[in-house]
Fold these 2 entries.
Entry 1:
Amino acid sequence: MEQTFVMIKPDGVQRGLVGEIICRFEKKGFTLKGLKLQSVERAFAEKHYADLSSKPFFNGLVEYIISGPVVAMVWEGKNVVTTGRKIIGATNPSDSAPGTIRGDFAVEIGRNVIHGSDAVESARKEIALWFPEGVAEWQSSLHSWIYE
Ligand code: DAT
Ligand code: MG
């Protein structure tokens, strides 16, 4: 089954949005496979965002990610990468639809509360980076009520 990496950024943690965000993925029917609160080092944040290292906002982005603890998660389910991105909403909260996490809880692109992998391949890389110890193996007892 497909997995994605989701991170609640330091603003989401500081603003007390952890429960609300987990709730949205849980209620959708996705399965939580990994979860930890963690402060990350600069080099680790740079590795996570390596693809953006040439962007003018890269340094600010890294400063933001290391400014406080984040909540790193792995969620599993059918099409969870694409659907997870829809639950999260557009990168710039000015464009994120109401009902999405960024649409409901963020105003600025540099404080957009949450990260979600953008493709199955990047999800695989990000899960390996953030959860080198591996994730839990379990199946929800609700599985047959969510999948036909
Ligand atoms: P996303 O987080 O939606 O996958 P991304 O991977 O393009 O977006 O960029 C990673 C983060 O970098 C994004 O969540 C916020 C920040 N960012 C992106 N574009 C930006 C810009 N033009 N100005 C400032 N920050 C930006
Ligand atoms: Mg991205």
Entry 2:
Amino acid sequence: QTGKFTYDPGFLSTASCNSTITYIDGDKGELLYRGYPIEQLAVNCDFLDTCHLLLYGDLPNADQRTDFHGRVTNHTMVNEQMQFFLRGFRRDAHPMAILTGLVGALSAFYHDSTDINNPQHRDIAAIRLIAKMPTLVAMAYKYTVGQPYMYPQNDLSYAGNFMRMMFATPCETYKVNPVIERALDRIFILHADHEQNASTSTVRLCGSSGTNPFAAIAAGVACLWGPSHGGANEACLNMLGDIQKMGGVAKVGEFMNQVKDKNSGVKLMGFGHRVYKNYDPRAKLMRETCHEVLGELGLQNDPLFKLAMELEKIALEDDYFVARKLYPNVDFYSGIVQRAIGIPVPLFTAIFALARTVGWIAQLNEMIADPEYKIGRPRQLFVGAAPRDVPPLSAR
Ligand code: SDX
């Protein structure tokens, strides 16, 4: 009898933990970080305020804000040895391959001094990771384009510093565009946490063995890379580009027919969600951010943005999508706005990882702080061969 593997989605979708960090109502399309609606945070706060909220449970007052921003700013540089680690990669390596390696390599510098069960050690690891991710993502980018690394500049904002490390060169002074700076900061807020998604669950499971937080976050980076998860923004932009090549808006109907044909394997990337069966609130905010950035850059007639809005309009009126409660998710517009800012497509998921690091580390720290937590050990439904005796070779 040969075993037949059957997958029981219900088995894996049971609640995996208690958490106080992020609440999602998938049917209503609601997302709250520590009780604050994402719509209010995206407008009234900046990303570092949101990091403070996710890590410590509340928004910082003025003194706490100054202290937290200062602590992060003072940890933005990475050890000079990290440059030699990069040199092992081909210049055309995918930025997520590089980032997975770089984040894991951070553990080589901090593993010995980090006791995951010490709250102070967990806190400094969180600060270091939040502070260093923009530097590592920018280094990965600079390495692939053969430009010198730009060191962090402490008088800039978190988003402004990242922009300068990405786009400046030593040859000229770089001026941060405040509209782009605000848009990037908002993109970070929208991606900061999302309860027990695949990469967060990976970080929790990895961290539950007691490994250091840098290694656990590296596992999250690797999981996020997948096109069904954080890689969807890159896949979505490539999909829009393919439709554009097919003939643009005029070919949307033909493309949608491919999506509805189950045998085609074609998905409408940036649509659908494991939890949201309504509009992802982040997608609405991302579309507004798109409008702002394209307006600022004089790209209001960006063909891919127009194509995306047409796709969304058609899908939201199409019975196939309505019946399956398929709506735009966070990835549908995020690629268009990042491309307009000048971020290369392969780097989109690295930006997602940069932003999600605070969520990963907040969720990891919440788990480790729980005295009841144990190493994760999911079970299985065994549907394989029944017990049997080993036959002699002649009888096999
Ligand atoms: C992220 O978990 C998180 O929170 C993740 C995330 C986060 O912040 O961490 O929100 C980030 O990962 C967002 C999702 C990004 N992925 C994509 O945009 C890739 C395209 N979307 C899908 O592959 C899909 O929607 C999933 C994987 C996200 C969800 O897949 P499910 O669980 O199968 O969705 P479902 O059960 O709601 O599907 C219902 C039906 C199925 O068809 P039927 O078998 O009922 O006929 O809709 C179909 C699905 O096949 N379907 C799609 C589709 N998504 C689901 N059909 C076409 N295009 C799609 N995008």
